[in-house]
Amino acid sequence: MGTEPARELLKKWKLRNLTVEMATGHTLQHLVMLYEADKQANIQCLQIISALGEIETSLRSLRHDVDALIAHTSMPLPPPPKPKPKRGRPRKNASKL
Asked: Rounded to whole angstroms, what are the CA distances from 94 to 7, 25, 34, 88, 90?
C-alpha cells in the first residue's frame, strides 16, 4: 500500500478530496515510514560512535608511540599549539585603555 507525499495530501485535504479515513490511513503510513527512518538513523549513529571510539583508541596509541620515539631519540618536544584567536569584533579604542 503506497502513500502520497504530505504536501499532496494536504492539497487534497484542503480541496476536500480526501476523506477522514483516507487521511488516517496515509498518516499511519507516514508514521511507520518515519519510525523506520528514525530507527535506521539511530543504528547509523551508534555505528559512527563506535567507529569514533576505535579512531580515538588508535590515536592515543599513536600518541604514545610518538612520545616513546621522541624520548628514545632525545629529540626536543614540539612546542604546544598556539591558542586560536577569538572571533568577534575587535573593541574600538582598545589601545587607549
From this structure: 55, 65, 54, 14, 8
% residues pLDDT > 90 (the chain) = 60
Burial class (CB in 10 A: 0-12, 13-18, 19+), 40: exposed
Gyration radius of the chain's alpha carbons: 29
CA–CA gap between residue 88 and residue 67 (Å, rounded): 36
Residue ranges per structural domain of the chain:
6-78
Answer whether 0.90 is exceeded by the pTM: no
